[in-house]
Write a structure and sequence with these properties.
This protein is α/β, with parallel strands linked by helices. The protein has 14 helices and 13 strands. The longest helix is centred in the first third of the chain and has 17 residues. It starts with a helix and ends in an 11-residue tail after the last helix.
Length: about 425
């Protein structure tokens, strides 16, 4: 792999041992994928250091302790506790304090401590043709498909890319891999983010890790709907990029790709996703959750309006999860108070599948993490439904955002009914 003079200098340790180790790891990654050289990145979305795994936090601390500094703007992914108010979610104090150690390490390295799976709603908005690195699959698919940036689905290597400002040129950093592999026709009429996560879930199941070109949508989806569709694809498949003509740069409105493998998404397909994730008991559910991926400001406006002047039913717990940045914007706009008055908890930094509910981890016994026994969680996202099933091992009830609020207020599950069209 061809290295620049700066790559070689980093490898020689001229900018410290942490940068040397980071560059060595990136070279190893590039050689594994036959990358011809490295590219400059303009931004990285990196691993938070998950407090459910004490060694994970210690790795972030060790990296910061070596003098590591971020070379480009960096945001941090979702964490295992709301660091401003972990008590409100029932998380043990030891878990919250350990998560704050990771926060301190990131600040030392110069990361923006956003702790969200939607950093674009917190102001991190990479532009067309910017090479980036991202640990979060939803960030990757949104950046590639909506913003026109270039990113692979990365792991801890995103931290190394942030430290060096460099990344191997392979995968979706190459033009040849940003072409459609499937043609998907949508005859359903999705509306709202819940429908669009279900649509994405169907597409991801059909195309796997391919790049679908999507035709047939009657109206241009909103930014929140585009976000939801992408995370649905990334959850059920390995999709890191979709092409929606007129949205995905530089694909024009009339772009098409005949001759590729075909798939169709009908209303029955979308309804089946909702029905398939309705496996829990419709009475006695433990939690209603809104905000997967982390809610945008527009979604917070919507939730606040739905809850204004209403009251969550006694015995029902309602979580609205968002980034700390969006929460502050919503609070300043007077949107949070009506939600809290209605009985909702507005949670930042984490969500049900990333908090102490998770039972697939092996937390340090000293943390005192005992996952609660959960009967059913009501969700408005196919992504959340999928991972609640797999990571919390808890049945779900999947419906729209509006009907999830009705569920929380009435105490009775309100299912999405199949729509015509």
């Amino acid at each position: 792999m061809k290295l620049s003079d700066r790559d070689k200098a980093l490898l020689d340790g001229t900018e410290g041992d942490a940068a040397r180790q980071a560059m060595a790891a990136l070279i190893q990654l590039g050689e594994a994928y036959d990358a011809p050289d490295m590219v400059d990145i303009g931004y990285a979305h990196v691993h938070a250091g998950m407090a459910l795994y004490k060694g994970d936090v210690e790795l972030i601390e060790a990296t910061a302790g070596q003098g590591a500094k971020m070379a480009v703007p960096v945001s941090t992914n979702i964490a295992n506790a709301d660091m401003g108010n972990w008590q409100d979610t029932g998380a043990p104090e030891a878990l919250g304090l350990l998560q704050k150690r990771a926060e301190a390490a990131h600040r030392l390295m110069g990361s923006a401590t956003s702790f969200t799976c939607t950093p674009y709603w917190a102001g991190h908005w990479p532009t067309w043709n910017m090479h980036i690195a991202s640990i979060e699959s939803g960030v990757t698919v949104f950046a590639n498909s909506v913003l026109g940036a270039r990113s692979n689905r990365d792991g801890f290597f995103a931290v190394y890319a942030g430290m060096t400002g460099r990344y191997p040129r392979f995968g979706l950093h190459l033009d040849r891999n940003r072409q459609p592999t499937h043609r998907v026709t949508v005859t359903a009429r999705p509306s709202g983010t819940a429908d669009f996560t279900a649509l994405g879930y169907v597409i991801g199941t059909a195309v796997g890790s391919g790049v679908p070109l999507i035709r047939g949508l009657q109206t241009r989806p909103s930014l929140d709907e585009l976000d939801a569709m992408g995370v649905g694809m990334a959850t059920s498949g390995g999709v890191a990029m979709f092409i929606l003509p007129g949205v995905t740069p530089p694909w024009a409105d009339d772009a098409d790709a005949p001759g590729l493998p075909e798939a169709e998404v009908t209303e029955a397909d979308i309804a089946q996703v909702f029905d398939g994730f309705c496996t829990g008991e419709e009475t006695g559910f433990d939690l209603v959750h809104l905000g997967c991926p982390h809610a945008s400001f527009e979604e917070m406006k919507h939730y606040s309006a739905l809850l204004s002047g209403r009251q969550v039913s006694p015995g029902v717990e309602l979580w609205v999860t968002t980034s700390r940045a969006v929460r502050q914007l919503a609070q300043d706009a007077g949107l949070v108070a009506p939600m809290i008055k209605a009985g909702a908890r507005v949670v930042s930094d984490t969500c049900p599948i990333s908090c102490h509910f998770a039972c697939t981890c092996s937390p340090d016994p000293a943390l005192g993490v005992v996952p609660p026994k959960l009967k059913t969680i009501v969700v408005d996202s196919a992504k959340q439904a999928h991972y609640v099933r797999d990571m919390i091992r808890c049945p779900t009830l999947f419906t729209t955002s509006e009907l999830a609020v009705e569920t929380a207020v009435t105490g009775r599950f309100q299912p999405r009914r199949r729509r015509n069209g």
